[in-house]
């Protein structure tokens, strides 16, 4: 934790004006009802469902420089006091942004541009007092050595989503001293789960096609359960942690109400309890596992399924499926304190089970 000198009067004032990016994503939709007491300005590439209370909504494309400039202008013109920067292309097929360069613009360049806008808005005093960015366990890289702490090196590579999370995480830390007293909270959540979640990871575990092609739609309508494909060398004993998306939403709400002004906080975020092995994930979902001779065979098959629109799983994700991903969450428990069990309500296993 680091701290920027602030004025005591500012520290006591309640946040009112909040900018939320990515309001139409699953996390954005889950956090929106919890922010009814705030004046919201929200943005996304697509409008949220009509039943999502989103305050003043502005549709813009963060993968374009014009959209990034428009967002920076909104930050200043709307007198924003806190930012929940949730916009991030995680599932390229379902988002519709499959071009790697455009994905990088939306994920990394847009994050830097928004932080620069915060620094500019705070050049004459701390107007924007809080910036929250959800990074990811994937930023640590593949196959973690036990439960990693927040001090572990960020070694993500190969998979664009993981690399972009690492780069954006590093940009947040690098730019913190220039933010003019704005508190910066970087959470590193494990895999999102819950009944409302629908991404290529959970679809693979559920045995559902994750592509957007006609074949994927046909198999989904028919209710076919597709096997998970792994190399013969995979034992299935690698551990994953999950976090319920509703718990993440509650953590964001808690942060708005309890953040420490001027501080930099980097915090691992996972469900309570132990992780779940890959083999148990498949068993709990009732999804069969088919083993191919080697990892190269699996990657080659995924490339074919991606090309024909049956799978939305990037072939580069396979090394991340074969490793263990568990984090130490001591800092999270200490940060939230007495509110911990009312905020983080699900264990990793319960979060995964709720996805089924």
**Whole-Å distance between the termini?**
38 Å
As laid out across the biggest beta sheet, the strand order is 1-13-8-6-5-2-3-4
* Helix count, DSSP H or I runs of 4 or more residues: 15
Average pLDDT rating: 91
SS-based class: alpha/beta
- The low-confidence runs, each spanning 5 or more residues with pLDDT under 50, are 3-11
- What Rg is obtained from the alpha carbons, in whole angstroms? 20 Å
Indicate the overall shape: globular
Query: Would you count the extended β strands for me?
Result: 16
Largest sheet: 8 strands, mixed
| Residue fraction in strands | 15-25%
Work out the helicity level: 25-40%
Give a structural overview.
The chain is α/β, with parallel strands linked by helices. The chain has helices at 8-12, 26-31, 65-77, 92-95, 100-121, 160-175, 200-206, 214-222, 245-258, 278-285, 295-307, 318-322, 330-336, 340-343, 348-354, and strands at 2-3, 17-21, 39-44, 56-59, 82-85, 130-134, 147-148, 183-189, 191-193, 228-231, 239-240, 242-244, 263-269, 276-277, 289-292, 326-327. The strands form 5 sheets. An 8-stranded mixed β-sheet has the order 1-13-8-6-5-2-3-4, with helices on both faces. Strands 7-16 form a two-stranded parallel ribbon. Strands 9-12 form a two-stranded parallel sheet. α3 (65-77) runs parallel beside α5 (100-121) and α5 (100-121) packs parallel to α6 (160-175).
């Amino acid at each position: 934790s680091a701290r920027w000198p602030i004025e005591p009067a500012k520290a006591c004032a309640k946040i009112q004006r909040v900018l939320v990016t990515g309001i139409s994503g699953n996390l954005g939709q889950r956090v929106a009802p919890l922010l009814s007491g705030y004046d919201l300005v929200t943005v996304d590439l697509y409008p949220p469902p009509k039943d999502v209370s989103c305050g003043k909504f502005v549709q813009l494309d963060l993968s374009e420089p014009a959209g990034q400039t428009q967002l920076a202008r909104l930050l200043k013109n709307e007198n924003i006091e806190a930012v929940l920067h949730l916009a991030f292309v995680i599932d390229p097929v379902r988002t519709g942004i499959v071009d790697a360069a455009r994905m990088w613009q939306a994920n990394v360049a847009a994050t830097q541009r928004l932080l620069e806008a915060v620094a500019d808005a705070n050049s004459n005093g701390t107007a924007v007092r809080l910036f929250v960015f959800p990074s990811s366990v994937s930023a640590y890289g593949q196959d973690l050595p036990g439960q990693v702490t927040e001090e572990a090196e960020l070694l993500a590579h190969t998979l664009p989503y993981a690399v972009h999370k690492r780069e954006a995480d590093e940009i947040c830390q690098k730019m913190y001293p220039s933010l003019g007293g704005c508190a910066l909270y970087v959470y590193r959540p494990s895999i999102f789960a819950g009944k409302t979640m629908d991404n290529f990871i959970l679809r693979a575990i559920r045995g559902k096609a994750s592509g957007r092609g006609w074949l994927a739609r046909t198999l989904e309508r028919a209710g076919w359960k597709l096997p998970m494909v792994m190399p013969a060398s995979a034992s299935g004993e690698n551990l994953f942690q999950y976090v319920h998306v509703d718990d993440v939403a509650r953590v964001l709400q808690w942060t708005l109400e309890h953040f420490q002004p001027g501080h930099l906080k980097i915090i691992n975020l996972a469900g309570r309890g132990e992780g779940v092995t890959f083999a148990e994930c498949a068993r709990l979902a009732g999804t069969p596992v088919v083993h191919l001779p080697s990892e190269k065979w699996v990657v080659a098959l995924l490339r074919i399924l991606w090309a024909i629109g049956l799978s939305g799983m990037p072939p580069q994700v396979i090394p991340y499926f074969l490793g263990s991903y568990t984090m130490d969450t001591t800092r999270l428990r200490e940060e939230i304190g007495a509110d911990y069990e009312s905020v983080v309500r699900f264990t990793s296993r319960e979060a995964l089970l709720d996805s089924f």
